[in-house]
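A reminder before we start the practical. When you read a complex entry, don't treat the lines as separate problems. The point of joint prediction is that each chain is placed relative to the others, so the output describes one connected object in space. Small molecules and nucleic acid strands, if listed, are placed in the same frame. In the example below there are two entries. Take a minute to note the order of the lines before looking further.
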Amino acid sequence: MSSNNQFCTFYVDGLFFGVDVLRVQEVIRFQEMTRVPLASSMVSGLINLRGQIVTAIDLRRRLALTDRASDQLPMNVVVRTDDGAVSLLVDEIGDVLEIDESTYERPPETLTGAARQIVLGVYKLKDRLLLIIDADQVVDLHGKAAATAA
Amino acid sequence: MAMTETLQQELIKDLLLESHEGLDRLDRDLLSLEQGQGGSTSMNNIFRVIHTLKGTAGCLGLSRIEHTAHAGENLLSLLRDGALVITPEMITSLLALSDALRGMLRTLEATGNDGTADHSALLANLEKLQIIPDPATAAPAPAPEKATFGLFSDDEPAALAAAPAAPVPAPVAVATAPAPLPTVAHVAPVAPVAPPPAPVPAVVAPVHGSGDAAEGSAKSSVADNAIRVDISQLDKVMNLVGELVLARNQIIANTTQFDQAALMTASQRLNIITTELQESVMKTRMQPIGNVWGKFPRIVRDVSHELHKKVRLIMEGQSTELDRTIIEAIKDPLTHIVRNSIDHGIESAEKRRAAGKAEEGLLSLRAYHEGGQVNIEIMDDGGGINLERVKAKAISQNLLTAERAAALSEREALNLIFLPGLSTAEKITNVSGRGVGMDVVKTNIEKIGGSIDLQTQPGQGTTLKIKIPLTLAIIPALIVTSGGDRYAIPQVSLLELVRLEGAQARKGIEQLYGTSVYRLRGQLLPLAYLNQQFKCAAGSKNAGGTQDDVINIIVLQADGRPFGLVVDEINDTEEIVVKPLGKQLKGITTFAGATIMGDGRVALILDVVGLAQHANVVTETRDRTVTDDKSRTADDADQRQTLLLFTVGQDRRMAIPLSLAARLEEFPLTRLERTGALNVVQYRGQILPLIRVADHVAGRVTPEAPADILQVVVYSDQGRSYGLIVSQINDIVDEAVTIKRSAASQGILGSAVVQGKVTDLLDVPGIIRLAETTPVQSAA
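Here is the predicted structure of the whole assembly.
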């Protein structure tokens, strides 16, 4: 786990997720997207982020959750990766939380599927669980994690 | 302290930049001296390069470079003063010196110091060459030399074993020297006299490694990253940026007040400035192809010496300009092809003599612009490619079966060369024959949107033709819509557009075992539906392709074969900026990238070859190209022609075959400039002379009302382009034309009835000849 304990949080299909705040470039509201035919179903499309072309990955599909209702517009959490910025589509944005390290726990062994590679660990907050996701794993659609999700 | 360190680094950077250029120049000058050209100018240039390098290196405390350069300088000063006459062995040694210096510079760049590679053998050699040849003194010479050079070869006397530390070509130069030249052969044993102590290889190894690393990551090298730009070009860019800022201010001011007319003017200005800025910036990135070719005389010399062949290199069109990134990208493929041509193509002198050819083989490189692309031809007059041997090789390497091989067309067999793993060399040489060649060349060229074509004549030679785009960053593209999404198709792969309406649309497309085909001028054109390929929900239009009233077919070329792509709508052509796709989408071969459209949305750029493969419209059946050629000649016999109809003056109807029109353009009057007697416009980075058809054509022409926008038909012939100003473009018709009246009047081939009206057929080359001899009267 990184020494930084600040996380940008968001909701996906009722679950509460967080990603290292230093990896987040920006959070923006829904953007028009250009569909990419023949691409993985996890790729929602391409967005124009101030002249830069950014791939948008639907976290619901990435984490093998149910699809978003068609009238619900996702938000973009744009994360920095070695290969440029990538947008993660989430349902709703939460706060940036600073969390006490002592509440951290490794994900339970029973966690399987796509989430196994993506979820780094869990913080036991007072009222809910915060799942920390690995920004590098989540954007790697061709890696091991992707194979299990597909 | 930190200050001086940065300064030192800056100075080293300058030294690297200058020296790499200088050494390349030095190689060229040496080679021209070897061929008996250049004379004292070349000699002085060589001397200056070495002298400057020595001086700068000395200032920076790079003693090894300084001493090595110094040894060369001593010899050069004797040569310059005429005390010695230059001999081939001197040239070989001086080239080896240049390689050694390059190696040290590379080490300097990678590690920050000039390394530990030892060049005492080379230094001894250079020292020896300074002695005025005299058989009596030549023999005892080695001993004192070793002593002298021991002074600055530090404590590591090393032998020829150290030579690999020099960059790749060095061993070649050193190795070839002993064979033909007895004097040098005598020197060679000198080196081993110093027994190589155990630590030497260990010391040498990392140097060699770092040298390689520097070569591998050539892009990061200082010399490769820098670019020299003409100051006037930069001034122009700066001016344009200034104007751009002004235009932006105007727009900002106007958006708050919203004065429509003013906004309109401002946006027009913005348009013009942006276009000019784009062209200017592009020009700063343009480099003559000669920058890459400059290295070839040296490569040809080294390779041909090594293989004991005689090769003459001819280069044409060195000033042809290309985008910097493309120059970088073609460097390695071209070098490979040149090496290949000498190794496989050109035969040994004996063989050539037996075949009745000149002993000296000819390798010619030619570059020229054509249709917005750069063509590079590499031609040799060697033995050509033996197709049977290629086939046999491919079979023996299990790349295809014997039955399949027997059925191959000539063109297909030739394309086997590009298969990974195939090598036609009888034996593996240092130069080529490792089977990692032409497939890599082809992939690299295709990666930058180029194509490669091979022609061979047994016994007469081989010609490789490479077509590459001028620039990668901004390309003209056709924008189409399918399934509600827009896609950009690079114009380079575009052949023509076909629009079928009404009955044609219902009957034009035929089915052949489930595949759709269209008869394009008698040839079956395989069709792919973009909607089906991309599994779009396919809007109401063209779902099945047959029941609708309009079908748009884009005829594209993939791998030399045409195919038709059916789309919902054809929008417009646009200059697009190519942006790469993220790695999540790298696996999809149908897209070459993405671009941002005027409305800010993203559009995908189609990769035509990838798309064709995805749709299975280009397969192995290339035999058809043979029949293509036949039917084309049959077509020509038919009088049907596609004509471009236009008006000259107020009402004079004229036509030219559409094939003569490279493009149709509109130029605002304001872009018109003058050179000499001609009106010109700047067009795609070139100057396009404009010819007003009305001024030169015979017969009465009622002048039309002056227009702000000029209608221009662009005509290209042998790389030269001309713009023909007409007053209006009317139509394109496909009709059987019979010339009714052959008029020998100026600029007119004759008259025919087209669409029921008498139309003059314009003699385009004739008009151009006329225009070049008669000055223009009016500006527009």
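Discuss with your neighbour: Chain B has a mean pLDDT of 74. What might explain this?
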